[in-house]
Design a protein that fits this description.
Layout (H helix, E strand, L loop, with lengths): L10 H5 L1 H32 L2 H26 L4 H25 L4 H29 L5 H29 L3 H18 L4 H4 L16 H18 L1 H17 L5 H8 L4 H20 L2 H5 L3 H21 L3 H28 L3 H32 L2 H22 L1 H4 L14
Helix pairs in contact: 2-3, 2-5, 2-6, 2-7, 3-5, 3-9, 3-16, 4-5, 4-7, 5-16, 6-12, 6-15, 9-16, 10-14, 10-15, 10-16, 10-17, 12-15, 14-15, 14-17, 16-17
Keywords: Cell membrane, Membrane, Transmembrane, Transmembrane helix, Transport
Membrane topology: Multi-pass membrane protein
Organism: Gordonia jinhuaensis
Length: 430
Amino acid sequence: MSITSYALDLKPVRASRSFRHVWIGQTISRFGGQMSGFALMYLVWVATRSPALVGLIGVIQGLALLVFGLVGGHVADIANRKAILVASRVGQLVASCLIAALVLTGTWHLPALFVLTAVSAALSAFAAPADQTIAPRLLDPAQLPSGLALMRVSSQIAILTGPVIAGLVISTAGIGVCFVVDSVTFLAALWGISAVPRQAAQPERRPDDPEDPDDPEYTVKGLRATVEGARFLLGDKTLRSAALVDIAATVLALPIAVFPAINAERFGGSPHTLSLMLPAIGLGGVVAGLMSGKLTGYPHQGRIMLISCLCWGGAIAAFGLSTNLAVALSFLVIAGAADTCTVIARGSLVQLSTPDRLRGRVSSIDYLIGAGGPSLGAMRAGLVADVTSGAISCITGGTACAAVAIWMGLTSPNLRHWTIPRSAGQDPAE
C-alpha cells in the first residue's frame, strides 16, 4: 500500500476555484484569530491571575453563540449566504480594530475587552451556519470529507503557528500588535468570500418559507423554521448521538482555559512554555490532517468519531498527569490529532445527513454545540481549577469524556454504522 494513499486529498482545491479561494482566505484569517485569541487570554491572565476570569472569556463567547447562532441558522436558510458572510466579517474587522486601538493606547479595561469579544463572537456565530453550508454546495458529496479535512488542517496550522508567533510578538513588539494582525487578516477572509458564486450561496427554498420581513407571519414562520431544524437534528438518532459525543468532548475535556494555571503550577509560568501548549494541539491536528487520505475515504465516519473522542479524553487526562513538559506536550499532540479526526467525521456526518433547505438551521445547532461547548468547557475547567488545580481539572474531565465515548459506542448502533452517501448530486434525507 502506497504511503500517498494516506496523504491529505487535495482534489477539492483543484476541482473548485471558489472552494480554493475560500480555503486560502479562511486559512489566513484563522492565523490572525489565533494570535488575537492567545493575546487576549494572556492579557487577562497577567492582569488578574484568575483561571476563572480566563474561563469567563469562553462564557461570554458562549452566551453570544447561544443567541446569535440559532438566529444565523434561520437567516442562512432564507437569505443569500455570501451577503451574510461579508457583513459579519466586516463587523468582526471593526471590533478587532477597536480592541487593537484600546490595547495600543493603553486605555483598555476588562469590561471593554469582554464587550468587544462578545460582539465579535456574536458576528462569528451569526455567520457560522452560512459558512458551514457553502462547502456542500461547492463540492461533490464524495469530496466533502476531503474538503472538511483541508479546512481542519488550515485551522490546526493556525493553532500551531498563531500562539507561537503571538508569544514572540508580545515579547518584542507588544501585545497590541497581535490584534492589529488579526484585523488585517480579516481582509483575506473577505477576499475568499468574494469568489463564491451567487447561485451556490443562495439556499434552496420551499413555497412556505418566510420571505418578507414586513409580513406579519414572518417572525412566526421564522420561529417555526428554527424549531423545524432542531426537531430534525433531535429526531435523527445518528445526529443526536453525534451531538452528545461532541458535547462530552468539549464540555468535559477542553483544557485551554487552564493552560495558564498548569503552566504556573508545573512549568515555571513562563509565557514561552505557555505559548507551546496550544500549538502542540495544533501540531497533532496538522499531522492528522495531512495524513487524512484514508480517514476521509473510510465510509464509517461514525466509528471514527467515537474512537477519536475516546483518544481525545484519554490524552487530556494523561496531560493532566504529566509533570514533564515534553511528555505533557506529547499528549497534547495526540489530543490534537484525535480532535481533528473527530471534527472531520462529525462535519461529514452532519452535512451529508441534512437536506440543503435545512442545512443552515441544523448547522447553527451543530455550531452552537461545537463552539458553545468549548465555552461551557472553559467555564467548567476554570471553576474546577479554582477549587482544586489545573491538573485535576484535566484529569477528571478527560476521564469523564472517555467514559462517555465508550458508553455511546456501546449504545448507539446508528452512529457506529453510519456511512457516507457517494452518489454525486445526492441531497441526503430527501
